[in-house]
Design goal:
This protein is an all-alpha fold. It has helices spanning 3-9, 13-44, 50-61, 64-90, 105-133, 135-148, 156-185, 188-201, 206-226, 229-246, 257-281.
C-alpha cells in the first residue's frame, strides 16, 4: 500500500462521522433543553393537583418555544462544529470566494431559480405519489411536521431554522464534509450518490427521506460543478423558502393520471434545465476526479 492510498483511507470515516455526530448533537441538546423546560415548569407551577402538574410539565417540555430553542441551539452549535471540521480538513488551501466560480453569472442565477422551482415541483409530486401509495407514510410525515412545529404558521425560531440555519448546517455536513471526504476515495458520481443517501436517511422518515435524496443528488452534482458551498447553500435556502412560504403560489395540477404524468414531466424538465444552465455557468466543469483505489 503506497503512502497516497494510506492518506486517502483517513477520509473514509469522515463520510459517515458528520451524519452520526449531527444526530448525537441533536439528541444531547434535546435532552438538555427538555430537562431544563421540565425544571422550569416545576419551579413555576401554580396549580393544585398532581395531574395539573404533570400536564403543565409536559406542555412546557414539548411546547413550540422549547422545540424552537432545540432547533436553534442545534443549528448554531452544528454550524460552529461542522464548519470548523470542514475548514480544517478541506479548505486549508482553498477559498470560499465566489469569484471565478461562474463564467456566466446570468446563466448561473437562472439555473439556481429554475432548479429551486423544479425541485419543489419534483418534491411535491413525489410526496403526492408516495402518499397515495402508502397512506401510513403520509400520516407519519404529517405527525413529524406537527411535532417539529413546521406545519401551519411558523414561530420566529422555527422560521429562522427552516429558512436559514437548517440549510447552513445540512450543506456543511453533506455537501461540505461528507461529499468532500467521499470524493477523496471514490469517483465523483458515486460520492454524490453516497452523500445523497446519507442526506435522505438523516431525515428519518420515508417521505421526507425520498425527496431529500433526490434534492441531495442535484445539490451534490452542483457542488461538484462549482466546488463552492455557497452555491448549494443559496439553492437550499431558496428551495426551503419556496416550499415554506411560496408553494401555495405555484400553479399545480395532476388530478388525473395523464395530467399527473405531464406535471411530473414538467417538473423534471424544469429541474434539468436548471442543471444545464448551472453547468453552462460553471467556470470549470470537472468530469474526472483524482482518486485512487484503496
Amino acid at each position: 500500500m503506497n503512502q497516497n492510498n494510506t492518506d486517502k483511507r483517513k477520509y473514509i470515516p469522515w463520510i459517515f462521522i458528520p451524519c452520526v455526530l449531527a444526530f448525537v448533537i441533536q439528541i444531547v441538546i434535546t435532552i438538555i433543553v427538555m430537562e431544563g423546560g421540565a425544571v422550569y415548569a416545576l419551579g413555576s407551577f401554580k396549580g393544585n393537583t398532581f395531574d395539573e402538574l404533570i400536564s403543565y410539565v409536559y406542555d412546557t417540555a414539548f411546547s413550540t418555544a422549547t422545540n424552537g430553542l432545540i432547533y436553534l441551539l442545534y443549528s448554531v452549535i452544528g454550524i460552529i462544529v461542522f464548519f470548523s471540521i470542514y475548514h480544517s480538513m478541506f479548505m486549508k488551501d482553498s477559498t470560499y470566494s465566489l469569484r471565478g466560480k461562474s463564467k456566466n453569472l446570468p446563466a448561473t442565477l437562472a439555473g439556481v431559480v429554475l432548479f429551486c422551482v423544479g425541485m419543489q415541483y419534483v418534491s411535491m409530486y413525489l410526496v403526492s405519489a408516495l402518499s397515495s401509495a402508502f397512506p401510513a407514510w403520509l400520516e407519519e410525515y404529517e405527525q413529524l411536521l406537527e411535532s417539529a412545529g413546521l406545519e401551519g404558521e411558523l414561530s420566529p425560531l422555527m422560521a429562522l431554522y427552516a429558512l436559514l440555519l437548517g440549510p447552513i448546517v445540512e450543506e456543511i455536513v453533506f455537501r461540505g464534509i461528507t461529499l468532500s471526504a467521499a470524493k477523496k476515495v471514490m469517483p465523483y458520481y458515486l460520492a454524490i450518490v453516497v452523500q445523497a443517501l446519507l442526506f435522505g436517511a438523516f431525515h428519518m422518515n420515508v417521505i421526507q427521506s425520498s425527496y431529500a435524496f433526490v434534492l441531495g443528488l442535484g445539490l451534490g452534482y452542483i457542488m461538484h460543478l462549482y466546488d463552492n458551498i455557497f452555491i448549494t447553500l443559496l439553492i437550499h435556502v431558496g428551495y426551503n423558502i419556496i416550499g415554506t412560504v411560496g408553494a401555495t403560489y405555484l400553479p399545480t395540477g395532476g388530478d388525473t393520471l395523464i395530467s399527473f404524468f405531464f406535471w411530473v414531466l414538467f417538473a423534471l424538465i424544469i429541474s434539468y434545465a436548471g442543471i444545464i444552465l448551472l453547468k453552462k455557468g460553471a467556470a470549470s466543469v470537472k468530469e474526472e476526479e483524482n482518486y485512487a483505489d484503496i
